[in-house]
Structures are given as structure tokens and as C-alpha cells.
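TICKET: design request
STATUS: open
ATTACHED STRUCTURE:
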């Protein structure tokens, strides 16, 4: 039987209302807990006002909405199926010849459209806001600013000490050894008084200093001199430099490919960013898979009983899939499995699992 547009629209509206309600409830809970945690961290800093802390929690909220979207879709689909089943509307639809696959169309279709909108429109805004959150948090709550930036011209590092600060530029980097090549170091006294420049073939991060090789050292009103080996003091460590990379969460879906190219051209690994980009692309499929899993656990009670047990089972499956997704992502970041496999496995396996379970329950 062909599904009527009226029934299709009705089921889609039921899901949309449930989706909006559950998203609002979950974001309210997340905002409350984030605000409490940020207020706790800012308790020892009288210069950080409460209003700013609440603004930080708001800046983080769109990114949390992205991360929660699979659970929101899962719970919204379960609520929708439960309501339609409880009111016997799905029973009537089935009696009229509508199959489970037909009344899944509007919900799965809405979930896919929501996933596409989330990836292409919500993600860019969420990335900008989360980037602002990380900058404010680093400056006010952690007491440091970003140390590293990557551009087409290479890598830029900023190091600060008691006497002033230095800006280090390198065209290429060997990230494993933390070695820089084609290096320029600009030294400043205080905030902006230029006091010298170092041009070198390479610099390697050692304990408490940069071991600079083949360096030309210049200063205002002084002749340049050559040093085969020249130490430049630094308080930076390899861990601090690695941690200063822009998080994948702070980069828009549209900007990630170019950032990945710049990162790899500079000599750093972009595995985290590649996995994140593929996860964003796979997002709509994962949301559709959540609908299939919700249907598996929400359409059975009207025939077999045990509503509470089945709902808990469905939620447990959702969290299990989240755990597996995190585990596979970690394996991908470590290089144990390919990037594409790490990013797409949760969505593809979830969709196949949900479809197989529905086929078994409804057609088998």
C-alpha cells in the first residue's frame, strides 16, 4: 500500500515535536551541569564574573547539541513510536496495509535531513562558538593562551618567559622528533619591543631550550654573526605544543579539508581531524540508524509486553554504540585501524544491525 502524504506528514510532525522537546530538555540539563562545573573552577578567581561563566556555558552548548544528537534522535524516535503504539494509531495503520518500513520513512527521512543540516549549518556555527569558549577558558581558567598556529606559510609558535616573548616560524616540522626546519625566531622585550632575530637551518626541541643549528643572529645596530650551534631558552615542551593544535571541534566542516592539508604540509599528523571530518559526513547515516534501533525496541510492546524492559534495552544499546564509537575512534587516532574504517564503522554497523533486527522481528 502506498503511504498517504497525510499520514506521512502526521508521523513526521510527531517525531519533530518529540525531537525538539527532548533536545531542549537535554540541553537544559547539560547547560546546568556545565555552568556548575565552570562556576566551581572559577571560584578561586575573583576577576572572573558569574555572567562571563554563564556566557562560556552558552558558547559550549551548540557543540554539546552536536554530540548529543544521536541520543536525541534515538529517544525522540522511541517516544514517537511508543505514543503511536499506545494510541493504537500504528495498529490501525498496519491493519490498513501500511508496513513498518513505510511508516519509518518520514522519521528516518527527517533524521537524515536533520543530520545534513547539523553537519552543514549547525557545525560551522558551533565550531566558531566552541573555539571562542576554548580561548576564553584557556586565558581565564587555565592561565595560558594558544602557543601554535598553522598556516600556508608554515608553523608559528609563541613562547613567553619572564623577560619577554619570542615568535618562532618554521616552514616544515618533523613532529616525531619535534624538529623545525627553515626557522626564523623573532625576539621581543616586553610585549612589542623588537630586540633581535635568528635565521637558522633547523632547530630541535631539547630539555629547556631549542638547539638551533647554522644560525645567523641579528640585532638592531649590531652586525650579524654566525653560530653553528646556538641554544635558545624555552619553557615549552613537546606535549604543550601538541596540545596547542586547534581541536577538530573548533574547525568548521567546510574548513576542515584545507586545514588538514596545511597540517600535513607542515609535517604534523592530521589523523584526529580526518576522523572528525569523516564522522561528520557519516552523521546523517548514524541518525537514521538510531531510528531503526528505536523502532526495533519500541514497536514490540504492543504485541509482546514488557514496555519498560524494552525501552531500557533500547537505551542500553544506544549507549553501547556510543562506547563502541569512542573505542573505534581511539583506535583510529592511534593508527591501529584506517581512518575511514574508524569513522564509518559505528554508523554502518548500527544501520545494518537495526535493519537486520527489524527484518527478523517484522518479516522473519
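STATUS: resolved
RESOLUTION: sequence designed for all positions
ATTACHED SEQUENCE:
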Amino acid at each position: 500500500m502506498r503511504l498517504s502524504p497525510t499520514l506521512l506528514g502526521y508521523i513526521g510532525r510527531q517525531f519533530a515535536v518529540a525531537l525538539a522537546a527532548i533536545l531542549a530538555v537535554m540541553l537544559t540539563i547539560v547547560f546546568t551541569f556545565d555552568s556548575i562545573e565552570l562556576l566551581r573552577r572559577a571560584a578561586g578567581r575573583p576577576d572572573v564574573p558569574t555572567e562571563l561563566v554563564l556566557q562560556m556555558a552558552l558558547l559550549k552548548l551548540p557543540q554539546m547539541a552536536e554530540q548529543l544528537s544521536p541520543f536525541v534522535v534515538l529517544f525522540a524516535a522511541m517516544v514517537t513510536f511508543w505514543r503511536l503504539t499506545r494510541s493504537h494509531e500504528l495498529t490501525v495503520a498496519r491493519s490498513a496495509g501500511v508496513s513498518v518500513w513505510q511508516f519509518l520513512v518520514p522519521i528516518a527521512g527527517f533524521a537524515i535531513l536533520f543530520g545534513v543540516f547539523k553537519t552543514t549549518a549547525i557545525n560551522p556555527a558551533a565550531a566558531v562558538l566552541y573555539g571562542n569558549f576554548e580561548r576564553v577558558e584557556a586565558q581565564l581558567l587555565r592561565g595560558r593562551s594558544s602557543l601554535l598556529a598553522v598556516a600556508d606559510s608554515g608553523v608559528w609558535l609563541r613562547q613567553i618567559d619572564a623577560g619577554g616573548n619570542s615568535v618562532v616560524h618554521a616552514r616544515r616540522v618533523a613532529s616525531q622528533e619535534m624538529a623545525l626546519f627553515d626557522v626564523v625566531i623573532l625576539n621581543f622585550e616586553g610585549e612589542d619591543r623588537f630586540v633581535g632575530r635568528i635565521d637558522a637551518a633547523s632547530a630541535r626541541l631539547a630539555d629547556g631550550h631549542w638547539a638551533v643549528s647554522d644560525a645567523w643572529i641579528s640585532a638592531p645596530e649590531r652586525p650579524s654573526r654566525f653560530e653553528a650551534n646556538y641554544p635558545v631558552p624555552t619553557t615549552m615542551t613537546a606535549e604543550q605544543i601538541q596540545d596547542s593544535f586547534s581541536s577538530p571541534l573548533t574547525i568548521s566542516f567546510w574548513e576542515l579539508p584545507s586545514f588538514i592539508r596545511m597540517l600535513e604540509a607542515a609535517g604534523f599528523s592530521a589523523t584526529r581531524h580526518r576522523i572528525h571530518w569523516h564522522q561528520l559526513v557519516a552523521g546523517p547515516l548514524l541518525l537514521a540508524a538510531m531510528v531503526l534501533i528505536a523502532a526495533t525496541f519500541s514497536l514490540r510492546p504492543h504485541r509482546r509486553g514488557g514496555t519498560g524492559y524494552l525501552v531500557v534495552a533500547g537505551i542500553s544499546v544506544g549507549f553501547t554504540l556510543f562506547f563502541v564509537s569512542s573505542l573505534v575512534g581511539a583506535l583510529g587516532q592511534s593508527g591501529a585501524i584506517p581512518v575511514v574504517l574508524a569513522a564509518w564503522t559505528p554508523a554502518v554497523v548500527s544501520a545494518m544491525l537495526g535493519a537486520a533486527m527489524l527484518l527478523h522481528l517484522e518479516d522473519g
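CLOSING REMARK: The chain has ten helices and seven strands. The chain has a mean pLDDT of 83.
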